[in-house]
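Q: Could you fold this chain for me?
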Amino acid sequence: MLGDKMYPYFEEYLHSLAEARRIEIEDVRAIRCVLDEEVATDRSIIETLIDLDRSVEGCPEWRDFLSETIADFVVWVEGPLGEVTAETSAWLIAALRGPSGVPAPSAASVVHAVITQAEETHSSLSLFALSTPCASSWTRPSTAAWERSADFVM
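A: Sure. Below is the predicted structure, expressed as structure tokens.
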């Protein structure tokens, strides 16, 4: 599908990624291409991408892409340029929390990107950032490894 006009099939494509439960670098490139060339990003698309984040395991580029895309929209498209209003903050927090109230896996990364890009943000976004656990790509060592390191420190 890369290179073809994909927008008419965009929702179907995203649904197929959710079913596969995996996003590869080629998928990130395809989504970026559609958003850059074929469709204007809006709240609905951002919410769809956040829902996708909840249902898939992404390649390392996915979290970077998602954070950058959402930050660009929230800071430079939605509301006054460079400013994240209380209303926009409330919408973004609700979208990142979703219906279950559990933040999307990339929520901390997204909020960090928004706060970094924005000239001014509403305090609710900072509070959400402070209360959101960071997702990590680090795997936790086995218990035995932890015990050995504790013995070493003692």
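A (continued): Residues 7-137 form one domain.
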